[in-house]
Amino acid sequence: MRIDKCYFCSAPVYPGHGQLFVRNDSKTFRFCRSKCKKAFVKKKNPRKVRWTKAFRKSAGKELTVDNSLEFEKRRNIPVKYDRELWRKTIVAMARVEDIRKRRQDQFIINRLNKGRALRKQRDIQEVKKNISLIRLPAAELQKKRAAEAMVQVIPDAEDAEMAEN
User: Fold this and answer.
1) Residue 19 needs a FRET pair 20 to 30 A away by CA distance; which of 5, 41, 76, 131 works?
2) How confident is the model at residue 150 (pLDDT cuts 50, 70, 90)?
3) What's the whole-number mean pLDDT along residues 85-112?
4) With b meaning 16 or more CB within 10 Å and e meaning fewer, what string describes 108-118?
5) In this predicted model, which residue has the larger pLDDT, 103 or 137?
6) 30-47 b/e with 16+ CB inside 10 Å = b?
7) How many other CB atoms sit within 10 Å of the CB of residue 8?
C-alpha cells in the first residue's frame, strides 16, 4: 500500500481517495481533495496559498532543513522481503518519528521566543515614544513643588532689620 502526497498541499493521499489529474504530456498529479485540484487548475502557487505546507515552510513556520525529513522521500527501488529487515525498519521509523517530533517542538518554541522578544522590544519602543501619555499630570506638579521646597530663601541683613522694626 502506497500513501502518496497531494501535489498541492502535501497532505497524505490514501489508496482509493483523492483525485488523479493527468496532463497532456502524461505527467500525473495526485490531489487529496477538490479544493487542491481547483487551486492547481487555477494555476495558484502553493507557496503563496497560506494553508499549504509549502507556504508554511517558505514562510519559516515549519522546520525545513533536517536529516529526519530525508526518510520521507519516495524510493522506487524494490527491496527483497526480509522479516528481520521489516522489524528493524518499523523500530527505526518509530525512533525517527520521535526525533522529528522533538526537533519540531524545539523549532516551534524557538520561533515563539523570537516573537516574544520582538513584541517586548516593540512595546518598549512604543512606551519610550509616547511616555508623555503615560505620565500623570499631577506628577509634573509634584516635581515643581519638590523643586520649590529644595530652594532655600537666604535672608539678607536688610530683611532682618525690617523684620525687627
Assistant:
1) 76
2) confident
3) 89
4) eeeeeeeeeee
5) 103
6) bbbeeebbebbeeeeebe
7) 24
Q: Higher model confidence: residue 5 or residue 146? A: 5
Q: What is the pLDDT of residues 64-88, one digit of tens each?
A: 667 666 666 667 777 788 899 889 9
Partners of 22 in the beta sheet? 28
What is the residue-wise DSSP string for 8-46?
Answer: TT--EE-TT-SEEEE-TTS-EEEESSHHHHHHHHTT--T
Q: Which spans in 53-82 are helix H?
A: 53-58
d(C-alpha 54, C-alpha 56), whole Å: 6
Q: Compare 149 and 90 and report the one with higher pLDDT.
A: 90
Sign of the CA dihedral running 55, 61, 65, 66 = negative
State the cell numbers at 87. 522489524
Question: 58 falls in which pLDDT band (50, 70, 90)?
Answer: confident
Enumerate residues 6+ apart whose C-beta is below 8 A from 8: 31, 36, 37, 39, 40, 44, 46, 49, 52
